[in-house]
Design brief:
322 residues; three-stranded mixed beta sheet; globular; 3 strands; mainly alpha
């Protein structure tokens, strides 16, 4: 009866990271720079993989989709925050909030699945090198990607439908820079037992199963590498896994940090600041990790940059003489 008596809300307020007006321009510039670097860096990864035939392998196939997913995940949250700061309007519609929650859950789960698929690819490449191209074929890569995306969409739609059954009190103020699902349901006037069960079940499936698969893959990888007779072979095998392992550590490490910070502190602002490390920073750092730690990617990026520079010089010269 209490939930029924609450008036329906048409919008929420996103309080952001701070309410200090003097810090707003700094935060706007910082997040705009992060977003531009994220989009540009991941777009360069996608173009480098697609333009260099040497990178048409399963590992770089998954990497290009990971970069595309990072662009989509950042675009789901950061532009709305920038618009709110620029217009000095903290509101977000109920439909917009629901769409943002759904997309964040879809792309977050998809990233977890892609990291697990990349770990499986590294396991097959190191432990079964002669059968690598047979096991991880183009058909298998497409199947893993599509199935991961399908289950990620199901995850996002399930949580979104679960929100529709909730009633919210008036003047809902979310102490976050985007509509974060676990934070939003704290302000509902309805019972959230079923929602919490679904949240933990989805976390176990997309987080626990993915992490277990990654750990199992690297357990076999390390065991196989230690059995290699030559130190050169060991170094080469470890180098092929270094970039992926760094991305996995950054993605799950920041997620664990946000979870622990929510348990150790009661300050919603501190939790919101900590969530930036999970929802924004990994997407920006992934291109740097793969470009700095991977020799093949370095060569492909330099070729791509030279091509772009040459094309720009040709266009400028034509405009000059035209």
């Amino acid at each position: 009866m209490e939930a029924r008596n609450q008036s329906a809300v048409s919008e929420f307020l996103l309080l952001g990271l701070t309410d200090d007006p003097e810090l707003q321009p700094l935060i706007f510039s910082l997040f705009l720079s992060i977003y531009l670097v994220t989009v540009l860096g991941n777009m360069l990864i996608i173009l480098a993989v697609s333009s260099d035939s040497h990178l048409h392998t399963p590992m770089y196939f998954f990497l290009s989709h990971l970069s595309l997913n990072d662009i989509c995940l950042s675009t789901t949250t950061v532009p709305k925050m920038l618009v709110n700061i620029q217009t000095q309007d903290q509101s977000i519609t109920y439909t917009g909030c629901l769409a943002q929650i759904c997309l964040v859950l879809v792309f977050g789960a998809f990233e977890s699945c892609l990291l697990a698929a990349m770990a499986y690819d590294r396991y097959v490449a190191i432990c079964h090198p002669l059968r690598h191209m047979v096991i991880i074929s183009t058909h298998m890569c497409v199947l893993l990607t599509l199935s991961s995306f399908f289950f990620s969409i199901m995850n996002g739609l399930l949580h979104s439908l679960m929100i529709l059954r909730l009633s919210f009190c008036t003047e809902v103020q979310i102490p976050h820079f985007f509509c974060e699902f676990a934070t939003l349901i704290r302000f509902t006037c309805s019972h959230t037992l079923i929602n919490n069960i679904v949240i933990y079940a989805a976390a176990c499936i997309f987080g626990g199963v993915a992490v277990f698969g990654i750990m199992l893959s690297y357990f076999h990888i390390v065991s196989s590498i230690l059995r290699m007779p030559s130190s050169e072979g060991k170094y080469k095998a470890f180098s092929t896994c270094g970039s992926h392992l760094s991305v996995v550590t950054l993605f799950y490490g920041t997620g664990l940090g946000v979870y622990l910070s929510s348990l150790l502190t009661d300050s919603s602002k501190k939790v919101a600041v900590a969530s930036v490390m999970y929802s924004v920073v990994p997407q920006m750092m992934n291109p740097f990790i793969y470009s700095l730690r991977n020799g093949d990617m370095k060569k492909a990026l330099w070729k791509l940059i030279h091509r772009i520079t040459f094309c720009l010089q040709c266009v400028s010269s034509q405009n000059l003489w035209g």
